């Protein structure tokens, strides 16, 4: 990707132009990041207290019995938001849909195992595991092939 920056007094406000031959998920994420759509903080409820959650520490977020929880290692913290809202907020942190009720952090994945029914079993660095249903396997594979496992700490 080529980046051009033109600093000149003739410009009254910042303007960004992206030139490409086709729309992609990567472009969608870049636009969302630039517009600041994913800048909302994520809060959880733990022991009747509100806690700020670091998206990089979350393995996955899941819905169960009409409630939504974030799994951080061995802790499960309730989040009082809809799963689709959390998915939008965490997209820039490399989270993707694993199933109808689970959103996973691609940066925390350690390894995969193929299940007998075509689903993938995902093992996270924390030791947790979750399943990716067949419907979501290809989009996740494509994202990982694009370089989906990278973060600010230099891990690749």
UniProtKB/TrEMBL annotation:
<keyword id="KW-0804">Transcription</keyword>
<dbReference type="InterPro" id="IPR046947">
    <property type="entry name" value="LytR-like"/>
</dbReference>
<keyword id="KW-0805">Transcription regulation</keyword>
<dbReference type="GO" id="GO:0000156">
    <property type="term" value="F:phosphorelay response regulator activity"/>
</dbReference>
<keyword id="KW-0238">DNA-binding</keyword>
<protein>
    <submittedName>
        <fullName>LytTR family transcriptional regulator</fullName>
    </submittedName>
</protein>
<keyword id="KW-0963">Cytoplasm</keyword>
<dbReference type="GO" id="GO:0003677">
    <property type="term" value="F:DNA binding"/>
</dbReference>
<feature type="domain" description="HTH LytTR-type">
    <location>
        <begin position="48"/>
        <end position="146"/>
    </location>
</feature>
<dbReference type="InterPro" id="IPR007492">
    <property type="entry name" value="LytTR_DNA-bd_dom"/>
</dbReference>
<dbReference type="Pfam" id="PF04397">
    <property type="entry name" value="LytTR"/>
</dbReference>
